[in-house]
Amino acid sequence: MNLHRLLQKRTESGKPVRVGLIGAGKFGSMFLSQVPSTPGLEVAAIADLAPDRAREACRRVGWDEARIAATRFTDDAMKMMESHDVEVVVEATGHAPAGIAHARKAIAEGKHIVMVNVEADVLAGPLLAREAESAGTVYSMAYGDQPALICEQVDWARSCGFKVIAAGKGTKYMPEYHASTPDTVWGYYGLTPEQAKVGGMNPQMFNSFLDGTKSGIEMAAVANATGLTPPPDGLAFPACGTHELADVLRPGNLGALHHSGQVEVISSIHRDGSAVKNDLRWGVYVAFEAPNDYAVRCFSEYGVVTDPSGRSTALYRPFHLIGLELNVSILSAALRGEPTGVASGFRGDVVSTAKRDLKAGETLDGEGGACVWGKLMPAPDSLRIGGLPIGLANRVPLLRDVKMGQPVTWEDVRIDSANAAYQYRRAMEAAFPAA
Predict the structure, then answer these.
(1) What is the pLDDT of residues 159-170, one digit of tens each?
(2) Which terminal residue of the chain has fewer beta carbons within 10 Å of its beta carbon, N or C?
(3) Quick one: CA dihedral 62, 65, 68, 74, positive or negative?
């Protein structure tokens, strides 16, 4: 990739890449831990709702007092992005409406924007990417998070001339997880509420990982960036180990896929609760096929694990390092003017789906909450039913009952039509008819 060589040149020129970070939570802290060991990369400013907490996060990850003193801390992200010494903005809040507002401000100020906030990307990423392109800035997924790593694998396979059959990630899945709430989540993780509290773990955030919402969000982002498409009935979460990727991930009657060229998440446990051998719980994969008989022969000669036909195989990465790898996106944007994954169309959407029978008058509590989980759907289907995006399902009152397992629609809720995030989402739908 030559990023380190390019960074060395910037360092020698006395012009370091300077970053403005919004949100010093777990992902942001992991990124901050790498800054002292990356000459030529500096953090000019950190915006967080609690600046003192952000300073303490810097201390916790190993910053010395001199580096902390040289960094501006603020609770005003918008003002931070107006500063001339910020070249790349990292949005790591995880709040979809805030993410859209921050991304648009960064673009308007001529800054590159790296969106750790995949919730915002799925809500309106195609339009944000178009806006950035028009402004001459980079809008990018965050390397280290699974969607960007999957996009990289898909790009690799296509650049080599292989047809991509499927791409995705691993997770721990059971059907009953869809009904999990912040009150029940720790039992599924094998923790007590007290243990989770000591670890500083947010139950609603961790519940989003468990109940299928985060998987849906990440696969929608991959679909919108790569052109792969979701299965029509949502993610199937087939149980699959790395040794059987090529065999299981085949379409139709041959395997677990609905069609060739789709996104899918594989489970690290079987439906009976037993562990999958060689699971990919923390990793990502791409399944692809040989374009000709000579390539099939090469697969055999070089010990490639394939399906019975010898034509299909898969590559995988067993883990991802989250914020520890974020520098790749920052440097790619600043030094090469390229994103590490970017939405190019509206292909996948994540629709709020009732966890239980919901009653008119209740107020939805958003991603990872007790009311709804986010189900991946093909974008045309979401538009056809008027599905309520999971990114706008927080603090929204229900106007009518919704049965368990049914999608919540725009007509089921009272939403503020003057809300900026709502308006931008609607503008995205108009600008990008579902592909």
Answers:
(1) 999 999 999 999
(2) N
(3) positive
